[in-house]
Specification:
The protein is of the alpha/beta class and 326 residues long. The protein contains eleven helices and nine strands.
């Protein structure tokens, strides 16, 4: 089983066919960065058209059981998520509506301060806000997973403690391995995984040691060491693959509508666009390189299977449905 818990590709039949060629059973796709509720609904509509156009390649994923259906029918299950809480605007009632439409992950922040928590680029981290506490409770109730991939340290630790259900960091790497601003320190990873949450390893070059030149051995060694420290059962893959996106999309991701100035994030003016992916992971056909790399650094078949997909499958099964919240 192969599950990728984050992609933001420029979707096309080519990519859908590459998913099938790579044996990718499920992908969590970003369908909103800074969109309003109505704009996000339009993105759901676009995906409905793709499901109609390519029914032999992809299908809508809402529950872990949909992955079983996808595997049996030779398709990839597509699960939806947001990298920002903007689709719910300032209305907690929209959390349930968005889940009903098919959303399964929502980040509480994207780099900046939001109504819910603090992003990792802010100088001061005031933690989860009063509204954030209420929204986490509502997300727990309906089965919308709290994602803290772009959130600051205190906010992430607080979210893990506040949430009555496990949360996720769908795409990041350990800060100790590569000290990118968006990578996560050990106390943050521990707070998430100790509560049963998931940590997905990113292949976005700004998050890698050596960036685009990172070797598959270095990447897989990092995963193995993280498993030694935090346990293999709460780890997975979230590549952050942005395949075929034009560089203008980076500007939308980082700038949205909040500033008139260009925010280069972890890049610089000299490399403002998307960085090139490592040669051993160019697209969905390359998941086998990660699998063989994990085995080469000494991980067992069961451990590799857990990281490549079965951990995410268990997490999906346990957390996408409604749950009682104290």
């Amino acid at each position: 089983m192969r599950i990728d818990c984050l992609q933001y590709a420029n979707w096309s039949e080519k990519i859908f066919r590459q998913m099938r060629a790579g044996g990718v059973d499920a992908v969590h796709v970003t369908i909103a960065y800074h969109e309003t509720f109505r704009e996000t609904v339009a993105n759901f509509e676009q995906w409905n058209r793709w499901f109609e156009q390519y029914p032999d390649l992809i299908m809508k994923g809402q529950w872990a059981s949909d992955i079983d259906v996808a595997r049996k029918t030779g398709r990839t299950a597509i699960f939806f998520g947001f990298q920002n809480p903007s689709p719910m605007e300032d209305d907690i009632g929209l959390v349930e509506i968005l889940h009903t439409l098919g959303a399964r992950f929502m980040q509480l922040t994207y780099n900046n301060q939001s109504l819910l928590a603090t992003g990792c680029y802010e100088a001061e981290d005031s933690g989860v806000t009063r509204m954030g506490r209420q929204v986490i409770k509502e997300m727990n109730r309906v089965g919308l997973v709290v994602d803290m991939s772009h959130s600051a340290d205190r906010s992430t630790i607080e979210a893990a403690d506040i949430s009555q259900r496990p949360i996720a960091i769908t795409h990041a790497n350990p800060h100790v391995w590569s000290p990118a601003l968006r990578n996560k320190k050990d106390d943050v990873i521990r707070a998430v995984t100790a509560n049963g949450g998931m940590f997905g390893f990113s292949l976005y070059p700004h998050h890698l040691k050596g960036k685009s030149d990172c070797s598959v051995t270095d990447f897989c060694e990092m995963i193995a060491r993280t498993a030694d420290t935090f346990g293999v059962q709460n780890l997975g893959i979230g590549t952050d693959l942005c395949q075929d996106q034009p560089d203008s999309i980076v500007e939308w991701m980082r700038v949205g509508r909040w500033t008139k100035e260009i925010d280069y994030g972890e890049g610089s003016a000299s490399n403002a666009g998307f960085p090139p992916m490592p040669h051993w992971f160019q697209d969905n056909r390359d998941f086998g390189n990660i699998e063989s790399g994990l085995k080469a650094v000494g991980m067992s078949e069961a451990e590799v299977a857990a990281i490549m997909g079965s951990n995410w499958y268990r997490f999906f099964k346990d957390n996408f449905g409604a749950g009682a919240v104290a």
